[in-house]
Amino acid sequence: MSKIKTGVITAAGNGQQKLVLQTMSSDTGRSITVLEHLILEMQSAGIEKTAVIIAPEYANLYQQAAGEQLPNVEFIEQTEARGYGDAILRARDFVGNTPFLHMVGDHICISDNPQKTCAQQLVTAAERMESNMVLGVQPTHESQLNAFGAMGGKRISAARDIYEVKRIIEKPTPTQAEQDLLISGLRHGYYLCFFGMHVLPPELFDELTNPSGQAAPSGQAAPSEKAAQNQKLHLTPALQAIVARQTVHALEIGGRRFDLCAEHGLLLAQLAVGLQGPRRDQLLTELTQLLAESLTQASPQNENQATSAG
Question: Cβ neighbours of residue 172 under 8 Å, at least 6 residues apart?
Fold first, then answer.
């Protein structure tokens, strides 16, 4: 397999469009946008060309948010909100007939290894295994299953962080996960959920165009061509269809993902980025002072509330 040189960031979904425009500090304290951070993560893995899938009304704002990375980015508009799968399908001509790195626009990933980013871990694993499809995953508590796609399969004995994928379910219930997604060796109540980045094969586009994994339910007629055009195109059934035909692996990435759509998601991601950088000690000192001041200010208020209640 040739080197993976192409990347796709999806950022056209509802709730995603404005997130990547937000400003944050890099690990060195430089002011950058979330979009720049994502592009730099791509480049750390050797990605030379990056496409960003966007909603049309945000084109000018995205170009500004790319900053110094603008020459390295191509923006592709998803003119209709037809789903996650359709967003990736927009990049077909850009990607061509090669595997590509995909990252979602509403996650920031922080590696446990300062010398190797999460994207580097994933791309290195795919190239080492000569695989054009490797899913990035992370053990996730069952209380968060409603926010992620999840996989079932088995651990490859030769490498404790590599799994063979057997089943993929989008946002499973705890009951579904317990029945179909249990993996030996994980802590009780934990399942392997998507990390927010994958190495994907070019044949995914064929599956999205002619979805063999999205057949009509039993007893129902297939939708008409016009109705099918109005339906949302989902990614998970296309991935599952590929899993059913060929061997697909997953990598348990050494790091943490921060969902920017979650409550305080951007704040927590920003703190994680800062604590990874060379000014970690300074940031910890300032955070400690901030917490101390916050507790001091809260104490009189709590005492007044207690007095009033008495």
Answer: 145, 150, 180, 181, 191
Number of domains observed in the structure of the chain: 2
Report helix, strand or coil for 51. strand
**Owning domain of residue 292:** 280-310
Same domain? For 66 and 179 the reply is yes
| 138: its two tokens | 């992370």
In which residue are the tokens 């994680």 written? Answer: 272
Give the pTM: 0.86
Same domain, 292 and 251: no
Residue 279 confidence (pLDDT): 78
Q: Are residues 44 and 130 in the same domain?
A: yes
C-alpha distances in angstroms, 247 versus 1, 107, 147, 156? 15, 27, 26, 12
How many degrees, rounded to 5, is the angle at CA 51 between CA 31 and CA 96?
155
- Whether 173 shows a pLDDT value over 80: the answer reads yes
Closest C-alpha to 90, from 51, 64, 63:
51
Q: What is the CATH number of the domain that holds 175?
A: 3.90.550.10
Structure tokens at 123: 């791309």
Q: Which contacts (CB < 8 Å, 24+ apart) does range 165-170 have?
A: 165/135, 165/243, 165/248, 165/249, 165/250, 166/243, 167/240, 167/243, 168/236, 168/239, 168/240, 168/243, 169/236, 170/234, 170/236
